[in-house]
Design goal:
Length: about 90
Amino acid sequence: MAWDLFLWILSFFVSLALVASVFYQVICLTDLEADYLNPFETSTRINRLILPEFILQGSLCVLFLITWHWVFFLVALPVTCYHAML
């Protein structure tokens, strides 16, 4: 019971971090579109977030697999496979 609560809290914060990362990337691309940033600066800012995003997504998928939450694992699996192929 306590592990399920810990899993839900952990997955909530990891999902929140992933959404914040995507939101930051969209803001950077919007600044690029409005000519506030040059393309090199934008790509540097976005590329810094790619590897941590991949690691968080993969660890969340593995965490769902280990704790036998099959539905959430199957939802996270296609994105994790896509990240692995990249």
